């Protein structure tokens, strides 16, 4: 660590002294530093820890003030429109309130209600079932697709594949919901295909079926998220040393061998990232579910996001909606934080 | 690298089928949109008499001119403001000595995982109280706030990745914090700024929940929000609904094709850094 001094001659990063005030180090430190500098080339980077210690002297306070001014607008917007509502969510959750008449304090009763009423608790289970479709399947399938691209999709073919698979990711989720609402309808494409291959007995109104509605909504998620996972994992694969694959192939490794012993282990970090992003998507899903089923039939596709909306804006139970909202935010944090830690360790 | 011909064929066939599955939904709604308005066509059938006029009709009944201008207005308000204030904040947090920077950054990062659904209820009451409910500001202002975690995070990552010599050299030449920002770092941040701008434009265009809850009048919503309202009115008129959906998603596809590389890299880096 270099001690900071003021109003002395100063040192620029190449070790030349100039006589002006501001950023400087004391002489003994300098000699060490300059000999170190001479050994290395001009291009060498001074480690951040050292150079950050350069002082601006009298300018310090001005910089602090400017820095504060710079942060303020962003902080204010963030505070008013995110942090304040967040605190209000927690506050509302302790009351019974219909949005109009005065609020009644009920303590933790709303939270108890969430855990006791099967329809409310089911939303949380449904969210986890969606994780299977929004996360596990896209990541698993994405790994397979990415490694197939790596093996047979050299050049143009591979990049076209990636672009096409990515398309559903850029359209509004609402549009995805509407498109699939039609595809999964009784006269829709899915049933046409089933009829064409002789599975006519299997056709149904998928989104109106108590058993099949949730998996059907899940498949919309697969369609939307597969491209994202494929592209991310595929980018990860390009960073793997091709020599590994080459030597594996010289040894006559099959695609499956390569997949298990090279691709998957070396993509741990990318897999972690994919899981994090898609799990957040699954737990906080709203657009697709609201547009395609609005939680129905019955309660079979209700997820927390949709239930919060219904409780607050059609049933006027603001307190209960807020309790569910708080639980949703905690749920996302609890699930995502360990994933994040995993990522850090892999790095 | 040696790969058997059989494997090459199977692999490419697999990828081709997957591409077909991805694209089929788009083709299906396109074909459906060409059927006579008000009929219930089959899911995949070239119409006997293509009704290209459906797109025009959807354009009219959805009041598309108003929608387009409303969406563009919202994007034009949200994106530049978010870019400016997040960049300034990220610069200060990343490169300046400011009090509380240790706790400021985690505070912003905390917002990264926040589901919009978690705060939508109080946001509604807050906006009623502020008197901006059912105006375009009702979408613009919260979106700016909600983008701050990602935007600050993204720009800070850029600023701290710049060689420290640039900053130090400018300081030695007597540059103030403002000069440092305006003259040195802002011009160097063009690439991450444009990626961030494209990303936020697409997100804003596609924003649904805020539009649904905070703005009653569909002509003051974002495109995706308006599509939700359109679906409510025309749920039974499938060809028209499909035509409207195509009109609304075509701009996003065009933007994607034009800025494909930037969007993909931005999305990937954004999530990797996250």
Automatic annotation (TrEMBL), chain A:
Gene3D superfamilies, sorted: MetI-like
One Pfam family this sequence matches: BPD_transp_1
Organism of origin: Pelolinea submarina
Family: Belongs to the binding-protein-dependent transport system permease family.
Protein name: Carbohydrate ABC transporter membrane protein 1 (CUT1 family)
Membrane topology: Multi-pass membrane protein
Signal peptide extent: none
UniProt keyword Protein biosynthesis present: no
Keywords attached to this entry: Cell membrane, Membrane, Transmembrane, Transmembrane helix, Transport
Automatic annotation (TrEMBL), chain B:
Residues annotated as domain ABC transmembrane type-1: 68-259
Cited Gene3D superfamilies: MetI-like (1.10.3720.10)
CDD domains named among the record's database cross-references: TM_PBP2
Membrane topology type: Multi-pass membrane protein
Any one Gene Ontology BP term: transmembrane transport
One Pfam entry name: BPD_transp_1
Compartment(s) where it occurs, according to its Swiss-Prot or TrEMBL record: Cell membrane
Regions crossing the membrane: 12-34, 72-96, 103-125, 137-155, 191-214, 234-259
Alphabetical keyword list: Cell membrane, Membrane, Transmembrane, Transmembrane helix, Transport
Top-level taxon: Bacteria
A single cellular component GO annotation: plasma membrane
InterPro entries named among the record's database cross-references: MetI-like, MetI-like_sf
SUPFAM superfamilies for this protein: MetI-like
Family: Belongs to the binding-protein-dependent transport system permease family.
Alphabetical list of PANTHER family matching this protein: ABC TRANSPORTER PERMEASE PROTEIN MG189-RELATED (PTHR43744:SF12), ABC TRANSPORTER PERMEASE PROTEIN MG189-RELATED-RELATED (PTHR43744)
Name of the protein this chain belongs to: Carbohydrate ABC transporter membrane protein 2 (CUT1 family)
Source organism: Pelolinea submarina
Taxonomic lineage of the native organism: Bacteria, Bacillati, Chloroflexota, Anaerolineae, Anaerolineales
């Amino acid at each position: 660590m270099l001690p900071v001094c003021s109003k002395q001659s100063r040192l620029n990063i190449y070790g030349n002294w100039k006589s002006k005030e501001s950023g400087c180090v004391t002489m003994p430190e300098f000699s060490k530093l300059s000999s170190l500098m001479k050994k290395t080339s001009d291009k060498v980077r001074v480690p951040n820890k050292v150079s950050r210690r350069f002082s601006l002297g009298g300018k310090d306070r001005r910089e602090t003030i400017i820095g504060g001014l710079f942060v303020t607008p962003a902080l204010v917007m963030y505070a008013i429109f995110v942090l304040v509502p967040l605190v209000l969510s927690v506050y509302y959750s302790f009351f019974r309130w219909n949005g109009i008449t005065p609020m009644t304090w009920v303590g933790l009763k709303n939270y108890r209600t969430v855990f006791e009423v099967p329809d409310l608790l089911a939303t949380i289970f449904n969210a986890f079932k969606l994780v299977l479709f929004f996360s596990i399947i896209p990541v698993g399938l994405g790994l397979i697709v990415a490694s197939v691209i790596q093996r047979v999709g050299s050049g143009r073919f591979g990049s076209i594949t990636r672009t096409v698979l990515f398309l559903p990711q850029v359209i509004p989720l609402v549009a995805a919901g509407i498109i699939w609402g039609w595809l999964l309808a009784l006269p829709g494409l899915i049933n046409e295909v089933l009829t064409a291959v002789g599975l006519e007995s299997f056709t149904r109104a998928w989104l109106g079926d108590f058993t099949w509605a949730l998996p059907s909504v899940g498949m919309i998620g697969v369609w939307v998220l597969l491209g994202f996972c494929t592209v991310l994992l595929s980018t990860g694969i390009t960073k793997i040393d091709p020599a590994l694959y080459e030597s594996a192939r010289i040894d006559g490794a099959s695609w499956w061998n390569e997949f298990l012993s090279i691709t998957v282990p070396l993509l741990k970090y990318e897999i972690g990232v994919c899981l994090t992003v898609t799990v957040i998507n699954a737990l906080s899903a709203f657009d697709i579910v609201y547009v395609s089923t609005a939680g129905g039939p019955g309660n079979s596709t209700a997820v927390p996001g949709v239930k919060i909306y219904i409780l607050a804006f059609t049933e006027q139970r603001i307190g209960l909606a807020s309790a569910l909202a708080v639980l949703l935010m905690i749920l996302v944090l609890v699930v995502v934080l360990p994933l994040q830690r995993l990522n850090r360790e892999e790095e | 690298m040696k790969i058997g011909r059989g494997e090459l064929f199977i692999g490419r066939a697999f990828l081709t089928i997957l591409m077909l599955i991805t694209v089929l939904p788009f083709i299906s709604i396109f074909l459906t949109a060409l059927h006579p308005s008000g009929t219930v066509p089959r899911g995949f059938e070239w119409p006997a008499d293509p009704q290209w006029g459906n797109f025009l009709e959807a354009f009219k009944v959805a009041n598309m001119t108003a929608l387009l201008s409303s969406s563009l207005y919202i994007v034009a308000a949200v994106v530049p403001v978010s870019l400016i204030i997040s960049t300034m904040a990220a610069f200060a947090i990343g490169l300046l000595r400011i009090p509380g920077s240790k706790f400021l950054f985690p505070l912003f990062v905390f917002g990264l995982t926040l589901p919009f659904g978690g705060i939508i209820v109080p946001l509604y009451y807050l906006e009623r109280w502020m008197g901006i409910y059912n105006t375009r500001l009702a979408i613009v202002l919260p979106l700016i706030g909600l983008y701050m975690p990602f935007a600050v995070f993204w720009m800070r990552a850029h600023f701290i990745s710049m060689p420290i010599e640039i900053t130090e050299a400018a300081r030695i030449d007597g540059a103030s914090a403002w000069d440092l920002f305006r003259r040195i770092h802002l011009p160097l941040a063009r690439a991450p700024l444009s990626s961030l701008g494209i990303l936020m434009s697409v997100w804003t265009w596609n924003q649904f929940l805020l539009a649904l809850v905070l703005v009653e009048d569909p002509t003051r919503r974002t495109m995706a929000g308006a599509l939700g309202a359109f679906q409510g009115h025309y749920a039974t008129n499938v060809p028209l609904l499909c035509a409207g959906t195509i009109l609304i998603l075509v701009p996003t596809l065009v933007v994607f094709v034009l800025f494909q590389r930037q969007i993909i890299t931005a999305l990937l880096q954004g999530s990797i850094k996250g």
